[in-house]
Prior knowledge:
Blueprint (H helix, E strand, L loop, with lengths): L1 H9 L2 H30 L8 E5 L11 E14 H6 L10 E8 L3 H4 L3 E5 L3 E5 L4 E6 L4 E11 L2 E2 L11 H48 L5 H32 L2 E6 L5 E5 L3 E5 L6 H17 L2 E2 L4 E2 L2 H32 L4 H13 L4 H24 L14 H25 L3 H9 L4 H30 L4 H4 L26 H11 L3 H36 L6
Antiparallel strand pairs: 1-2, 1-5, 2-3, 3-4, 6-7, 6-11, 7-8, 7-9, 9-10, 12-13
Helix pairs in contact: 2-16, 5-6, 8-11, 8-13, 9-11, 10-11, 11-13, 12-13, 13-16, 15-16
Amino acid sequence: xxxxxxxxxxxxxxxxxxxxxxxxxxxxxxxxxxxxxxxxxxxxxxxxxxxxxxxxxxxxxxxxxxxxxxxxxxxxxxxxxxxxxxxxxxxxxxxxxxxxxxxxxxxxxxxxxxxxxxxxxxxxxxxxxxxxxxxxxxxxxxxxxxxxxxxxxxxxxxxxxxxxxxxxxxxxxxxxxxxxxxxxxxxxxxxxxxxxxxxxxxxxxxxxxxxxxxxxxxxxxxxxxxxxxxxxxxxxxxxxxxxxxxxxxxxxxxxxxxxxxxxxxxxxxxxxxxxxxxxxxxxxxxxxxxxxxxxxxxxxxxxxxxxxxxxxxxxxxxxxxxxxxxxxxxxxxxxxxxxxxxxxxxxxxxxxxxxxxxxxxxxxxxxxxxxxxxxxxxxxxxxxxxxxxxxxxxxxxxxxxxxxxxxxxxxxxxxxxxxxxxxxxxxxxxxxxxxxxxxxxxxxxxxxxxxxxxxxxxxxxxxxxxxxxxxxxxxxxxxxxxxxxxxxxxxxxxxxxxxxxxxxxxxxxxxxxxxxxxxxxxxxxxxxxxxxxxxxxxxxxxxxxxxxxxxxxxxxxxxxxxxxx
Length: 565
């Protein structure tokens, strides 16, 4: 028996099963995390039904205090009766546990808080009215209420011929005017972000050009006249855009609606402040799906609002992808050149081994150290020097001597270059010496052998290093807080203004967005679902980048499969 047991151990079968079990547990853990992100994050976009009920918790003096509830039930949990008593609600000691619900009641500008915990045992006469309206606003979060009236230039539309019925016709007119207000608001945003921003950019460019002429003592009457003519032209364009904006603001601001809250308070809302409005309790499953996918589309393509707790995260997606691509452009050549030198050109000895040990140790340096280095070296020294030599007309305002996309990409390239060096060097070491000797014997130089034979055969290993670098860089946050990432970027680093890619601009990042919304938001209950959704999106972005790199590596590996690299 003992002999069979020893034979079973020596065969390695137990270790195979242990490895299989570890892999299975890892897969289950990853699937569990993704499941939580999907359920918690994607449920935020579903147009939930709106609860209307009376809430009558017991009071200390025996009086019955009735309050109205109107909102979405977003969460529930079991709470000890002793905790409820300690919070000041005199519930019965005979019941050990109570269930409480988190109600998203919105109306923060009316009640002061848009979330509230209520005890389920004291909710009475619960219903889901068909006519309660859910409004998503540009400011102050959601609003829940009943549509009472609609005004155009302070003239009521009830009985005016446009909305003769206070119910169906009024709702129909309200939705039409919401669509009109949204279209006008889109036109306003387009003028502000494209037209006015472009004019302001050109005016600033003219100012810097004039300043440069003054510094170089080249400002003569001809240039002064030319600059003045160009500035006058831009001023006329700016005035025209301002007039167009004023007309649009007048048009979009003429409509408002009056709603009645659950507590009987009338609230007037400008339709220009409304992003989306619907009656959730009267929607069928297909109508809810349309709103659901509309919200997801807004999340992926729109700018954030309400301290990043509402709206979309497109600038963060764009910034993350752009930073990773620039980092890949910087880290791949540098890492490959370093690995080629260490493996192919450097004399193998003590110094080379020390360099390899140093490269391996760099992979273990905390990322915040790279951030401090990037701030001190790239921004203050390199960026400050660039400003002195090439952007002196803009000083003392820094151009490259401030955190930006370029320095963030270079800092992450420095952080991930050890991974690329090690992977590339291992790929070079796996190439048989006979391949190099055969190329040299056919008359090729050492550089030609390296460029045409060795590097193509080692390209799968280079892609492996790049994959690992992308996986680490895309999720880094700590160094980026020092070298370029901001809470909210006013514009994308790519636009239609020369030089089109603005490497000096700060940008948004998905990882920092998760940190900011999850830990710095003043409204944590509203931000929590967005944290899960953004985390899921970050995982998807990293997965897409990695899958793209893996597919390229597999093609290269298949191309050189006969050489077993």
